Amino acid sequence: MVRFVFAVSVILLSLGCTRSKFNFSEKTVLDVNGSKLTAGHFADKMIVLLKDQDALGAKDPKTVNLVKKKIVNDFITKSLAEDYARANSIIVKAEELEGEITKIQRNYPDDFAFREALAEQNLTFKKWRDELHDTLLQKKIEGDLFKTVKHPTEAEVQSYYYKNKETFTSVEMAEIQQVLVATESDAKRIEQELKKGKRLSDLAKEFSISPEGPSGGKVGWIEKGSSDVFEAAFHMKPGTRSPIVKSAFGYHIFLVSGRKPTRTLSFKEAQPKIQRILLENSQSSTYLAWLESQLRKARVFKDQELIDGLIVETKGE
Fold first, then answer.
1. Where does residue 189 fall: left (phi above 0), alpha (psi -120 to 50 degrees), or beta otherwise?
2. Of the candidates 274, 267, 219, 268, which has an alpha carbon nearest to the alpha carbon of residue 247?
3. Is the distance from CB of 250 to CB of 204 less than 8 angstroms?
4. What letter does residue 30 receive in the DSSP assignment?
5. Burial of 205 (0-12, 13-18, 19+ CB in 10 A)
6. Tell me: the pLDDT tens digits for 15-60?
7. Is residue 311 a contact partner of residue 3, using CB atoms and an 8 Å limit?
8. pLDDT tens, residue by residue, 176-227
9. What's 135's DSSP letter?
10. Would you say 29 and 42 are in contact if contact means Cβ atoms under 8 Å apart?
11. What interhelical angle do 267-297 and 154-163 show, nearest 10?
């Protein structure tokens, strides 16, 4: 039976992985129209997908089987997509790829932070770059496939709205401002200042320990049932202030700035969302139909016995 060793880091509660080199690692486990995946690369993909599991999760047969099925399905889909791209002269130009890389790197403070993020995912720059290329190619393929997909008509959008009207109901909401302090005595002093006419927003800027303190304690709109601390807000009138409320974070005094009742969105309000839903449904149907047709024509070899033989074993570092 084939075994791959996973080293578990207890301190980080994450999975570090190593794989021994076996002579079967170059054997083909999947071949789709000539595109081949070896046992060694299959094992590497298992390691990547299981790296965030703990020791027990990584060995769980259900988890392992789901990971194996995902690898098989992803490779088949990727191979068929690449065949389609070659047949239709769809490519990702070097400047397109480099432009996307630059755009992503700008989200990091410096190159070190970017490389560190890759290392945390057990990715080399080359591997990450290849995956980004595949993502961009997939988007181009989908764009080509979806050229014939028509946008939904207004009649279709209206029909969807009236058939699913109950799903376009907004939740009751309250707009909150708060001061959060560490002790009850601090909260009582804040309460006295408010009674003297001080503005809650000014006190929040000066004394609140919550992240929104510097912005005047503006928590914003919250949904009913989303917070025990602010649940009383849904029984208060706009402009009224709460008593002192204790929580695990400290002591809160909050102001209800506004209220929005539960209501059903109008057709006009729901229309953009419905258009997106219907368009995405059409695109999904088009893609699945294309994939099905490609699978019927494809030559697929799968060494299920060898795939089943890949067993996960964990041990502490």
1. alpha
2. 219
3. no
4. E
5. middle
6. 334 444 445 678 899 999 999 999 888 888 888 788 777 777 778 8
7. yes
8. 999 999 999 999 999 999 999 999 999 999 999 999 999 999 999 999 999 9
9. H
10. yes
11. 100
Residue 3 pairs in a beta bridge with 311
Are the C-beta atoms of 29 and 46 separated by less than 8 Å?
no
Closest CA to 34 of 80, 66, 91: 80
Measured between alpha carbons, how far is 245 from 227 in angstroms, rounded to an integer?
12
- Going by C-beta distance under 8 Å and a sequence separation of 6 or more, which residues neighbour residue 44? 19
Phi/psi of residue 121, nearest 5 degrees: -95, 10
Q: How far apart are CA 296 and CA 80, in angstroms?
A: 11
Q: Compute the distance between CA of residue 255 and CA of residue 274 in angstroms, rounded to an integer.
A: 35
Q: Is 253 helix (H, G, I), strand (E, B) or coil?
A: strand
| Residue 143: Cβ-neighbour burial (10 angstroms; 0-12, 13-18, 19+) | exposed
Mean pLDDT of 298-317: 82
Q: Which tokens belong to 136?
A: 């961009």
So what's the pLDDT on residue 316? Answer: 53
Q: Tell me the pLDDT band of 254, cut-offs 50, 70 and 90.
A: very high
Give how far the C-alpha of residue 45 lies from the chain's centroid of Cα atoms, to the nearest Å.
20
Determine the Cα–Cα distance for residues 30 and 132; give it in Å rounded to an integer: 23
